[in-house]
Fold each of these.
Amino acid sequence: MSLNKGTYLIREGFRSIKTHGFMSFASVTIITACLIIMGSIALLTLNIDKLIADLESQNEIVAFVDENIADEEAARAIESSILAVGNVESAEFVSRESAMNNFMSKYDDRLMEGIDSTVFRHRYVLHLTDISQMAETKRELEQVPGIIKVNAQIEYADRFVRVRNIVSVISLVLTAVLTFVSFFIMSNTIKLTTYGRREEIAIMKMVGATNAFIRTPFVIEGLVLGVLGGLLGFLLEWLLYTLLSSSLMDSLTGSFVTLVPFKTVMLPLLIAYVGIGVLIGVFGGNNAIRNYLKV
Amino acid sequence: MVQMKDVTKIYDSSGTVALDGIDLTINEGEFVFLVGPSGSGKTTLMKLITGEIRGTAGEIVVNDFNMMKIRMRKLYKVRRTLGIIFQDFRLIENMTIYDNVAFAMRVVGAKGKNIAKRVPYVLELVGLEGREMRFPNELSGGEQQRVAIARALVNNPRMIVADEPTGNLDPVRSLELMLLFEKINEMGTTILVVTHEKELVNAFSKRVITIDEGHVVSDDGEEYYSYELE
């Protein structure tokens, strides 16, 4: 394509954006809004995933050794069978003495008078690889010879996994719906341009312009609107996330929960925003002009 | 050049048989009037030549392109060999006369230098020199049709196809327009004029093809248009 032709087509694309200022503004706004909703859901999912990962590292399972195995050496011997259970990442042996000391340090010494370490069991503190498998792992651990009981906060873990799954499904559905809505609105905005210029298009066809030539200004129009929507959406999302996370972090001070910093997702998010904007714009423009090219 | 062999056009939507077994040949450099009453099939025949519609059966070749087989997105190749003119001029209102004509060159990818050279030449040829910066609504009907002719000519087509070009013009302007077509024809461009204006056709000694109810009812270069309008 010659420079002359290229600049002509680009100028034509911008011309229609200016001519339909309000509708162009509307479609950019819609794309921006849709992208912010999509992005927020994605960020929410990301944060829940991080929370689950944090929980996984924090959340402990305690496997108690049968009290009949009093000998520490014998109790330590079970470790290899525990580690053989899939999904167990690490196992830390805690002897009945240290368990008692640990316990006593939390409570008033007077309550513990006359108690010796034999009322405690030897135990293992375990970390899991995958928190969602907790219930199954618990069952398997209970089958290990010498283990009498396993304590695990299954409900706690399950709930987070369930929330994450629900959010994932909602985000998928919403993303699909919102992409379609943006595409539809974009296409209709550009259809206004094609309608306003139908005479020109008919003349172009009549004098032998190629379909690609006729299509290009409308695709450029969509592209520019899409990129604008993408960039604007990204900037607003950035602002929104920063504001929200700083106020959230204030109230979460002291807890182990931390949010994903925006910086770590900045580039992929920017690429996704502009990319989706471009796709919506290009396909919207293409769709708008389609009917005019059939003559 | 146009070649039609046993061409039939039936409209899908209504089942109307618009053309039935049309055979005709228009050679390079000819000047031909296509006449017939309303509903005779003139416009359908025009549209088959310009590729706006596709024939149901038969063979159609326009300037070496097989119009029965050509792909939709390749139609532009045929159109670049044709200059199409309509009764209602079809000019772009918010463009100057110059731009209306230059537009036709621009959209087929002509270079700026060539546009600057060719457009004034064509405007002068149709007698519109000095009106370049006017807008279509500042011109008379005859002048507007001249702009349309300039636009049709600017890409140097092999054939001009005009559908009722004088339909909106008074008799004097119509005659002037035909003289202009004659001048263009003398420069080597094939001319096909669709009309139902008897006097106009009678004023020129050209080949006249008459169609009615989808058939060619007469085709000779000797006899003048003798069809009585209803």
Note: Chain B touches chain A at residues 50, 52, 72-73, 75-80, 82, 84, 90, 92, 103-104, 106-109, 111-112, 151-152, 155 (CB under 8 Å).
Amino acid sequence: MSDDHVYMTLAEGHEDDTRWAYGTGFEDPLHGVDTAVPDGVDAGELAALCVTLADDALVSAQRLAEWTTRAPELEEEVALANIGLDLLGQARMLYSRAGQVDGTGRDEDAYAYFRDPGDFRNVRLAELPGGDFAFSIVRLLVLSSWRLAHFERLTAHRDPVLAAIAAKGVKELAYHRQYAAEWAVRLGDGTEESHRRMRKAQEQVAPYLGELFTAYDVRDEVVAVLRQVTEAAGLPMPVYRPLPGSGRIGEHTEHLAPLLAELQGVARAHPEATW
Amino acid sequence: MVTTLLDARRARRVAEQVPDPELPMLTLADLGVLREVSLAPDGTVVASLTPTYSGCPAMAEMRAGVAARLRAAGYARVEIRTVLDPPWTSAWITADGRRKLAEHGIAPPGAAPSHATGPVPLVLSPTRRSVPCPRCGSADTEETSRFGATSCKALWRCLACREPFEYVKEI
């Protein structure tokens, strides 16, 4: 009986024990899920949607993980890492679904580690450096509010796998948004300094809002949530001045390439390793 | 046919005993992640598991654990399936599971929040919840961190007996 020991259970089936340090031969997160695409669902569109939502989540998770050992308090570090872990889990399932339906049969690692910056479809807001804690909070508020509203609609998607991934994600995104909203109120309605930093963070985030609202019809709902939070926080709604370009068509800032270099470096240096 | 039914039940009992990797006082059945165990006509045992959270890092280990126990119990062919729908809820933690959590100093979850469909409302006013201390039973407790060592737990402390404790969140 080997399953009482974590290492023995995970290492089971891997003859080359020396590679264990690189990973545990992670199984497909959709292992054993019915992979059929329902009639009337365009497989190419479905795959593109899954990749877009996965890219947002993967890049956000990487930025959230950067707060580990750097957050203002241990509790916030744990919170941000936990939120990042949820998003990473969503990304893994979405990449796996994309690979099942786009005809390439790629696994999650192929999407995460072996695509170049121009192939990523995340919004630019997700890739901007973490900067101030206030900036990370405003960004998390915007991205989690948008993702929650969008996932809530996707629970009715005709693809049952995407609908199920979304239904699971809704529960998680609800407490991500709650966390960000409570911090936004605390900082906006806090000291002069925290209020000033929140105003600055809002100005930094505002130019990137338009990218989120082009493809999916959740704008009014998200704006209503942002208005509710800014009013409670004593903050103004930021003036929206859109920037040209969009991460949704592969146009990114100079910040995505270094982020991916760090994320992908080990996997690309050891492409034969068991993950 | 009778043999098959008995065998399916036996396979289920075997799979039910696999401990959760992160809350080892609970079995996968106590936690509500073991959804179904059935026997295919060719004798393959099909066990269905559902993840608690999207990012649950223990899923691979749970799958490996269930497969290993079933093989050790004499089932040569084992298939593990992942079920995503309906999503796991803390309401699926059994009464036995709740008792075991409390016995190990972890407060079990309260009633899971219910949300039908449509936009999820954001509530900004402070909500008072009372989580009884799993050690002394006092209701005089407070949250110290909504996020803890695993996705499913928050950190609380008891103001009566002064002990910190973990609390499995409702989801």
Note: Residues 206 and 240 of chain A are 5 Å apart (CA to CA).
